[in-house]
Amino acid sequence: MIFSVVKNKKNLIVFFTVLIFSGCAVYAGLNYDQIYGKSAPRDRITPAYSTVAEHYLTEVKPIIENRCVVCHACYDAPCQLKMSSSEGIDRGANKEKVYEGTRLLASNLTRMFIDAQSTEQWRELGFNPVLNERDQTAEANTQAGVMARMLQLKQAHPLPEQKILNQDEWDFSLDRDQQCPTIEEMTKYEQDYPNWGMPYGLPQLADGENKILMSWLEAGSPMASVPPAPESTMNKIKTWEAFLNGDSLKQQLTSRYIFEHLFVSHLYFEDEEETVFFNLVRSRSATVTPVDLIATRRPFDEPNVERVYYRFVQVRETIVDKTHMPYALNKAKMARFKALFLEPSYAVTELPSYDPVSSSNPMVSFTQLPVEARYKFMLDNAQNTIMGFIKGPVCRGQLALNVINDRFWVFFVDPDMANLPSVNAFYERQAHNLRLPAEKESNTVPITNWLHYSKQQGDFLRAKNDFMKTTFKNGEHLTPQVIWDGNGINQNASLTVFRHFDSATVTKGLIGEQPKTAWVLDYSLLERIHYLLVAGFDVYGNFGHQLVTRMYMDFLRMEGESNFLSLLPEAIRHQELADWYQGANTDLKLFIQGDINEFDQPSGITYLTDTPKKELLDKLKTHLALVQPTRYELSEAALGNQAIAALTTIGRMQGEHVSLFPELSYIMVTPNDTNKPPQLFTLVRNSAHKNISSLFNEESNRLFTRDNVTIVRGVLGSYPGAFWSVKEAELPALTEKVLAVKSEESYKALLDQFGIRRTNPEFWPFSDTLNQTYQANYPIESGLLDYNRVENR
């Protein structure tokens, strides 16, 4: 009893001491040091097959993934706290934002597993622990750790009983101020923001889940890294590394090209029972020795070694949808690479420089590789190639994505057209006009460089138009036959790109009704998009670098659009372009009417209607009919005809009221047949614009009356804005409610009946079913969804 009194008295002293000094981080730090000892990183990674590791992997990690990683992954993780790996949790948080569009100088790199290899190194780079790094006692682990305190704060202050959280108290905007408290600042944080425990703005963890996490934290947060890949997978890696690290100059150049296009992909072996994902990296060390990672800002930066080796490194982070780009490897793929790059008869006489001016320009670096080989390599997995500029170096970014329309179709010039000596010679002559902003690295002065690149692009387009006039004289080849048909088997032959304000999705096939615009990409355009927005883009770069990159993409988009327009009757081209660029500024109009659309050869298509664009898109869809996927077709859902009809009706919405819906709404339908699993659908809002040439005031270019939606079967996108839950029998009622949405109040009424708001007590069970169903339907492609954009309405 005496001991208990003394202990309680000690706790009271500790409490009042912390309270007194909470306003000053220095004193608070000293106080924590005095009570719990000095802070120092701890070794928390346990042996892979120990009982402790098994407990973490089977009991603790699933909770962290499904309750924490859904907001804390990638560069847009609040406070840079990436909880998608044990190493990321141990790394902790940082008050600096990665997405900072106004910085004058490029910031320091903080890429997980690349820019530091230990927790000590991350501390030197300014990361603060969220786990206790002082004395490893139960009391210290729960009182001197930010994560534990955040969980306790939430349990003590659950969400208020409100359908919609108070807008003055809660901020869910993506550019919101982030507190990112250190443990020394936690007491003040708890006083100022008592309702801001974790998960932020979402229901608290269930008692059982919270108990598991708190017990784990009390025990010192022992963790395990990902289990090693099976021996059969490692044997395949040896084969692939041997292939990629061949000694011939032809092989070395080929491997460099492959690496610079796949460095953001998640590679896997599709003939393995267990799917394990890998990254392809540059290493100082050769095969069969430990990887010695070469960490550079860009994949083509100077490695400062005599010989680069290309190695496989296992992905150690939880797979999240917003960064996941699976790329299958197998014997057929290796044979394809050899057939494209190694077997043809040509010579590589020397390896290209890593000088920024040449290495950032693939038309210079890889001029010794056949254009046909390069183009077919990208086309084979065109979805992956285009997806790279959306999921690769960035997770989000309005400034980067307001350069594209909300939904458009993408076609490709037949690669056999690239197998002409005249095409190779043309690209070689134009290499100086195809230089890209990455040559300036990550600190760029926007205006002067913009003028420089604008002139280059104009010169290139004039030369290209002259070249095309000769190649397509009198409309020769300007028919659907000029468009790649995927050889009748490859579904990458056509793509649909959906923009969701500051994120986007790329799907195979021509999804939805005919769009406003379309692109036709040839080799040079596809290659430049990759080196502009993936290989050459630096999310840590300064404002100038990001701005010039975005402005340059204007050129590439218009070039792709112009290629599409060249298939239309000559008299229609300017008319269509004028509709796409209503209200464009004078300089842009001059550019469009001059350099970019001087091509005046007639189309080789005989048009029979007064709606040639519709007729052309119909012809192209017929041309590609054999390679159109059915994945997103509503008719493929395991629901009755009445249910499909109701969903189809929702998909016909258009008009100003459509803007009331979020970018992405996920719909979970419980079938009448209870033996069938839940059916998932995505309602995509497509926002119309007068033009997309404005950098900052996008709202002024909106055409709300032309807004429409696309509804698809399955999950599309990574960032849901709203969740609906409905029984199959209720779909007619849901449809009636959706069609009645004409105001904010009527939208709220829809959610009152069918929505799963962020305040709903059933939010987490719904979330679990959603992610589990997505994973079951698409085990390779799926990843955890991100909840940073779930609306508070």
TrEMBL record:
TM stretches of this protein: 12-30
Pfam families referenced in this protein's UniProt entry, alphabetically: CTI
InterPro entries recorded: Fatty_acid_cis-trans_isomerase (IPR010706)
GO molecular function, one term: isomerase activity
Keyword Transmembrane helix: yes
Entry keywords, A to Z: Isomerase, Membrane, Transmembrane, Transmembrane helix
Entry protein name: 9-hexadecenoic acid cis-trans isomerase
